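tool_call predict_complex ligand=uracil
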Amino acid sequence: MTPEPIPDIRQLLAFYVEAGVDCALDDAPVNRLAEPEPAPLASAPVAREAPPPQPFRATPAIIPPRAEPPPPPDAAIASAREAARTAPSLEALRALLETFDGCSLKNTATRLVFADGNPQARIMFVGEAPGRDEDIEGLPFVGRSGKLLDRMIGAIGLDRSKAYIANVIPWRPPGNRTPTPQETQICLPFIQRQIELVDPDVLVTLGNPSTQALLGTREGIMRTRGRWLEYDTGRRVIRAMATFHPAYLLRSPSYKRLSWQDLRAIAKVLSS
Ligand code: URA
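tool_result ok
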């Protein structure tokens, strides 16, 4: 049998990227298979013989970050609420997030993705979480779905200088995985405060995760989209509408027709 050719570094990296490993978390790889087994619990039967040594195999280095472990979720949620509540301005809120250590997504993200657009805008769009392009640039919706969002905003006669754009989660989840409910709960007070500070006339949630997190809906986006809902900042009730996430529209272009209807309803309210 002819032995498999050994891949060169480019081929290996291409394999990792294809497998979803698109960011390095540490300077050097760690061979997890070579690490000793954790000590057995006191009550567990004690192994009499050491297991045979594991052969070395190159594995993608999924390495936990070296930073301090984040506080337990309840403490992190409480400290997020307290911190967000005290931010007097968007600049202060951004600065708070830069130093907030309660969400471990920060440890794997390249940078904070706070917002883009005009804080004085009458309309605010909120997505779920930054992806790879946003993580690199530090701005929300700059990748393929961002280009489509720009066209959606253009469809109501606006552009980024007349709209404000943010995400529920301001750090990219590693490999674009879905944020956990805990991560969402920890980040929620910050986006809620951001909405309160921007105080738009219309809030548009993009896709199910941001709709459920901000508008408290339980049904899917097919049912919630296109209906006027309310978002209460505590100081004012803002008109809110859910529509499809642009990434979803890229995968299912036939729904663009419905999102166009949503955008027309939004344009009508903005012009009244
Ligand atoms: N998807 C989102 O929800 N937000 C972004 O910023 C980019 C893609």
